[in-house]
Backbone:
């Protein structure tokens, strides 16, 4: 007789604090997956993660090349971090990553935001980060449901079966 109990996840609350392609896409893939599974989904973008919901930046993200010791280029080639200092390497690497994602039919950020919100997911911006970087509500994607303090985000994140995931 098993004493293991099943506690289903009912709500996923993702926090995205980094604006590099790999960080933003990790958040969006997980958020979209949760929406597709019928799980209530909230995504909170803070600090550099705001780039993913700022209209002028959301489809122009770059990958971090300096200090990214796990960076692999298509074909599995591990790029030595020292190469990241070469002018144009960040743009080139970002272009290659976006090309690989397009081949796998991974949508751009704007389309991911469409998918998540169409499925009932909520997108939020961090008030502190907005104030810090001098962004205004009109700078944000139309997919943003609101600008919240961290306390307000926690209020949205509560409930039985709720998970907070920092990506």
Residues:
């Amino acid at each position: 007789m098993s004493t293991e109990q099943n506690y289903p996840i009912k709500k996923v609350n993702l926090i995205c604090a980094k604006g590099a392609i790999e960080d933003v896409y990790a958040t969006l893939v997980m958020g979209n997956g949760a929406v597709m599974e019928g799980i209530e989904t909230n995504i909170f973008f803070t600090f550099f993660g705001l780039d993913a919901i700022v209209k002028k930046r959301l489809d122009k993200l770059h990958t971090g090349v300096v200090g990214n010791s796990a960076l692999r280029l298509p074909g599995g080639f591990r790029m030595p971090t020292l190469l990241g200092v070469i002018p144009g390497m960040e743009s080139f690497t970002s272009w290659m990553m976006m090309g690989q994602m397009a081949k796998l039919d991974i949508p751009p950020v704007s389309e991911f935001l469409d998918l998540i919100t169409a499925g009932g997911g909520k997108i939020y911006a961090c008030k502190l980060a907005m104030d810090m970087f001098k962004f205004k509500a009109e700078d944000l994607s139309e997919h943003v449901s609101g600008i919240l303090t961290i306390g307000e985000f926690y209020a949205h994140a509560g409930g039985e079966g709720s998970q907070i995931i920092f990506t």
